[in-house]
Amino acid sequence: MKVRYKFSHRAKRSPSFSVGISIVALVLLATIVGAFYTPYDPIKMHITERLAPPTLQHPLGTDSYGRDIASRIMQGAGNTILVGVVAVSGGMALGILFGLVAGLAGGMRDEAIMRVMDVLYAFPAVLGAILFTSVFGPSLASCMIAIGIYNVPIFARLTRGSVLAVREEEYVAAAVAIGRSRAAIAFHHILPNIISPLVVQGTIQFAGAILAEAGLSYLGLGTQPPFASWGGMLREAQTFMGLDPLLAIFPGIAIALTVLGLNLLGDGLRDLLDPSFIRSY
Asked: Which entry of 125, 158, 230, 245 is 20 to 30 Å from 237 by CA?
């Protein structure tokens, strides 16, 4: 209870963490509500109501097919968060595994793993998505796989560097001395002590995954119509920017706020988990 109190006390003193967690909480709330309820069917078209301005009936107006923009933003939040969670968690899991093996094994295995990571890192998520969609067709799954592969080397590098920094510590030497296996040392002794920077990096990569998903959907490589995604809404809105710029403004604000909230949350977590910051309280 004392540790929790200290963390909550420090969190209240961190503006970045407070603002970031508030924005992320609002986005998650919209995602959860949108999974069960939206004011209107987000894919049902009403041509007679197309390009309607914001009203009490449609607070954010309607798009070029007469679909309620607020409902589509809520549905798009779910698709965007799904891509971020799956891609980042998958890339994080594989990256941590490769980083632990490389950091503990050393030698040729370390070199081989890290050179493969360098090759993967050389291919941006967009190029990976183009590769996958050319083979399997454009889909949400291809988008998640491409973004997930892009995240693997990022976490592998960070994990390997953290392992190299702590593997000579006394608690690791003690575990080796009592005959613990390399896997036990990696997951029971090293990983718990390097998890903080990985969590912070995961939050930052989540923001990057949302931007990547929006960009891929804008190019037509992510979530496919008629299902909503924020990037897809921007693509549909570009034709009507002269008639109704709000079509692009609302999904753009959703993307910007979500990325801002995640970046602020990552900055706040980095400060809260920094030992020098903790000592100051």
From this structure: 125
Bridge partners of residue 68, in order along the sequence:
62
Residues 6+ apart with CB under 8 A from 267: 16, 17, 20
Strand residues in 126-225 grouped as ranges (E) = none
The pair of structure tokens assigned to 60 is 């954010």
CATH of 13-39+61-279, one of 1.10.3720.10, 2.60.200.30, 1.10.8.50, 1.10.10.10: 1.10.3720.10
CA angle 81, 83, 86 (to 5 degrees): 105
pLDDT-derived band of residue 241, with 50, 70 and 90 as boundaries? confident
Question: Is residue 136 a contact partner of residue 142, using CB atoms and an 8 Å limit?
Answer: yes
DSSP code, position 224: P
Rounded to whole angstroms, the Cα distance separating 57 from 209 reads 33
pTM, whole model, 2 decimals? 0.85
Q: How far apart are CA 213 and CA 36, in angstroms?
A: 23
Q: pLDDT tens for residues 126-143? A: 777 777 777 777 888 888
Residue identified by tokens 């090293």 is 190
Would you give the DSSP letter of residue 49? G
In the predicted structure, residue 276 carries a pLDDT above the cut 80 = no
